[in-house]
Design a protein that fits this description.
Layout (H helix, E strand, L loop, with lengths): L8 E4 L5 H12 L3 E6 L2 H14 L5 E5 L5 H10 L5 E4 L14 H29 L2 E6 L12 H20 L5 E8 L5 H14 L3 H12 L11 H11 L11 E4 L9
Parallel strand pairs: 1-2, 1-4, 2-3, 4-5, 5-6, 6-7
Helix pairs in contact: 1-8, 4-5, 6-7
Bound molecules: nicotinamide-adenine-dinucleotide.
Nicotinamide-adenine-dinucleotide binds next to helix 1, strand 2 and helix 6.
């Protein structure tokens, strides 16, 4: 199978690092022109330099906008009017104690992890429907299913993304637009990589050992016994954005190394 996305315009939110950056690389390698996004101008500019160096043939643009706010989402929409592919990758997590958490912290995470994608899909999906082709992908998490007790708010936002994704797939059914969610497991992204590097330094062990300890204690059901790479997650996203994936919509697709113990 040769995936060809030449002539397609993609937006990947939160893509100056981590899984989003790998998705931007993967889509560009398949021929799509890719808009990357992060909060700060500097990080966006640095990511653009890196991507253009790696893939000189590819076409990239960048928009610095904080998509956790309605203003940031409006700024992205104003700068990039339409897209054929929207990957709602932006998201974060904080380890916290449920009993001490404030309402604002719940609402802020909901804005960042859920509303950023809702607003982007609301803006870009109608154009896809009008043109009769489109791909919307929500990067959820295995934490949507296995709710982590130290990040219940995160689990809630990731389950909410599945609901939005499935509902939107129903709404645009039969139009040539597909909507799917991808559920990564523990992945060596910037945020989790940094956490493991810090843990390793604290405990005088290697990053590999820190990851193994994390898996044993926090994700013992892993079937691959390692973190996934950002590229492994990106591969699934590139496929689901391809022409060839036209038969898959409304799905929740796992790249979790088998962490979720269910067949479906
Ligand atoms: P990361 O922190 O490594 O990268 C996040 C990216 O988003 C960065 O480019 C950052 O600059 C950007 N960003 C952060 N806040 C932003 C904002 N308000 N507006 C615009 N850009 C912003 O994250 P990651 O681990 O690659 O996670 C990407 C997605 O994958 C998230 O939705 C996350 O929940 C999901 N996920 C990650 C893992 C994992 O183990 N890393 C597992 C399951 C799901």
């Amino acid at each position: 199978m040769k995936i060809e996305l030449k002539g397609r315009k993609a937006i990947v939110t939160g893509s100056t690092a981590g899984i989003g950056f790998a998705i931007a690389q993967g889509l560009a390698r398949a021929g799509a022109s890719v808009v990357i996004n992060g909060r700060g101008e500097q990080r966006v500019a640095a990511a653009l330099v890196e991507l253009r160096t790696q893939l000189p043939e590819a076409e990239f643009a960048g928009v610095a906008a904080d998509l956790s706010t309605a203003e940031g989402s409006a700024l992205l929409a104003a700068r990039i009017n339409d897209a054929d592919i929207l990957v709602n990758n932006l998201g974060t997590a904080y380890v916290n104690g449920f009993f001490d958490q404030k309402d604002e912290e719940w609402l802020d995470l909901f804005q960042l992890n859920v509303m950023s994608g809702v607003r982007a899909a609301r803006h870009y999906a109608p154009g896809m429907v009008n043109r009769g082709w489109g791909r919307v992908v929500f990067i959820s998490s295995e934490s949507a299913v296995n709710i982590p007790k130290e990040m219940i708010d995160y689990g809630m936002t990731k389950t909410a993304q599945l609901s939005v994704s499935r509902g939107l797939a129903e709404l645009v059914g039969g139009t040539g637009v597909t909507v799917n969610a991808v559920l990564p497991g523990p992945t060596r992204s910037e945020i989790l990589g940094n956490w493991m590097v810090a843990t390793a330094a604290e405990q005088g062990i290697t990053q590999d050992e820190a990851e193994q300890n994390f898996l044993k204690t926090m994700r013992p059901t892993t079937l691959i016994n390692r973190f996934t790479t950002t590229e492994e997650v990106a591969n699934m996203v590139v496929y689901i954005c391809s022409e060839q994936a036209s038969g898959t919509s409304g799905a929740a697709l796992r790249v979790d190394g088998g962490v979720v113990r269910s067949i479906f």
